[in-house]
Amino acid sequence: MKPSLAAKLLQVLSPWCNAPAWHIAFSGGLDSTVLLHLLANLANTESLPPLRAIHVHHGLQAAADAWPAHCQSTCDSLGVPLRVMHVQVQPGASLERAARDARYQVFTEVTGTGEVLLTGQHRDDQAETLLFRLLRGAGVRGLAAMPLQRPLAAGCLVRPLLDVSRAELEAYAEAHQLKWIEDPSNADSRFSRNYLRHRVLPVLTERWPQTTASLARTAEHLSEAQDLLDELAQMDLRAANQFSPFSWLHLPSLALAPLRELTDARQRNALRHWLTPLTRLPDSDHWASWHSLRDAKDDAQPLWRLADGDLHRCGERIWWLPSTWSDFSDASVSWPDPQNPLELPGNGQVQLTGRVPGGPLTIRYRQGGEILAVPGRGRRDLKRLLNESGLPGCVRGRLPLLYQGEQLLGAPSLAGLWPAPSDEWQLHWMPQTCDQGLS
Question: Where, in this chain's numbering, is ATP bound (predicted)?
């Protein structure tokens, strides 16, 4: 006997039954209305986490102004509390993407530690996603389409209806006499997904009735293939994740030599895996920049600009610098109270320990030609000291220098590669991304 929709839903959600709360993304459309109704009824007979509905009002069309009231009425009848969240959709090339970004920003904000956000995407949505991404030339990760679950803030996003067809949802809604919102924009074929839904998939289904089920199954196969690629990437990255003497920077970095031993395809796979949590990935045409960075001469300092930061190469190591590092200002900063730490704009903080030097103190940054007194070695050119230390070039301009008037008193010692400038005091630097500083 075929299990009921409620039984299927309960089985899919069983791993999250001990979550502190379940949030339902409730647009008021067919999918989320059926999901909310199923969960509210299950809560009467099963031990479920507290249910809460979230309606995001995008303000993109006049008809949407009536939707919060409809959603409130539905939630009241089911005994589920509702939060209506208003968002401002940023204009851009893709209105669909901008609305999605605004919506998921809300979902991130409301999902607490260990909590679950439930959305109503179903099998037909999965088929549309696969076809849409296929036409855009996506790789395996993109063609794996929507996963059943993924991390969201400190919790998890779950799509429990991915194995349920739209026809099943319609049958359930009609059987329970549910009312839902029909978004007028869903009929507008100017939007790519609507074009696929109304103009392409019906033609394919007429010839191949199992089209949506087959496409969804293909997405599952590709998801498994992506899992295998991720395992291979983790194996390949173990050697490249070898110890860095500059771990105190807390910047992601990889040794280049182990990557060079891999084929080009495995290099790209490893880097995609490594970069995925850091930035939006480049398309295929932009991977030539990786080859330029990898093959540059040893004394070069090439960089690869990506959507959310830059990948730098310094010697035989590559470093990820997030775009937030661009907020750094190299203007001098006076230190009126050196007994307390000094915040540096976009560059963490510095602190003096020991006997604090007298006189007005300032923090400045390299201009070139600085000479530093090094105990046991006399006066040394700072540039040469930095070259000896191997400090990544992309960080050297951020090294704070302590001045007394126009006199350079010292710089933070680099991991013991040169001694502290004085036995009486030490300058400690804690970069903005560090949990531990450098003295």
Answer: 27-32
Please indicate if the annotation marks 376 as binding a ligand.
no
Among the listed residues 81, 98, 75, the one whose alpha carbon sits nearest the alpha carbon of residue 28: 75
pLDDT tens per residue across span 324-372: 777 788 889 999 988 899 999 888 889 988 888 887 899 999 898 888 8
Residues 6+ apart with CB under 8 A from 185: 60, 61, 191, 194
User: Of 402, 427, 400, 386, which is closest to residue 329 (Cα–Cα)?
Assistant: 400
5-224 in CATH: which number?
3.40.50.620
Distance CA(396)–CA(365), nearest Å, equals 9
Domain ranges across the chain: 5-224, 241-326, 333-430
What phi, psi does 72 have (nearest 5°)? -65, -40
330 is an annotated ligand-binding site residue: no
**What SS3 state is found at 73?**
helix
Q: What pLDDT, on a 0 to 100 scale, did the predictor assign at position 391?
A: 86
* 130 marked as binding residue: no
**29 among the known binding-site residues?**
yes
Q: Is 80 exceeded by the pLDDT of residue 423? A: no
Rounded CA separation 165/209 (Å): 13
List pLDDT tens digits, range 253-302: 999 999 999 999 999 999 999 999 999 888 888 898 999 999 998 778 88
Q: In the Cβ-directed half-sphere of 403, how many Cα atoms lie within 13 Å?
A: 16
What mean pLDDT is predicted for residues 304-314? 91
Q: Which of 93-102, 173-182, 393-402 has the lowest mean pLDDT?
A: 93-102
| pTM greater than 0.85 (yes/no) | no
Q: CA-CA distances (angstroms) from residue 129 to 86, 125, 429? A: 26, 6, 48
Cα–Cα distance between 385 and 408 in angstroms, integer? 15
Is residue 414 within 8 Å of residue 391, measured between CB atoms? yes
HSE-CB for 86 with a 13 A CA cutoff: 3
| Owner of token pair 């067919």 | 30
Burial readout 162-195 (b: 16 or more C-beta within 10 A, e: otherwise): bbbbbebbeebbeeeebebbebeeeeeeebeebe
Task: Say what the pLDDT of residue 93 is.
Answer: 58
CATH of 241-326, one of 1.20.59.20, 3.30.870.10, 2.60.40.640, 3.40.50.720: 1.20.59.20
Q: Tokens standing for 178? A: 């549910």
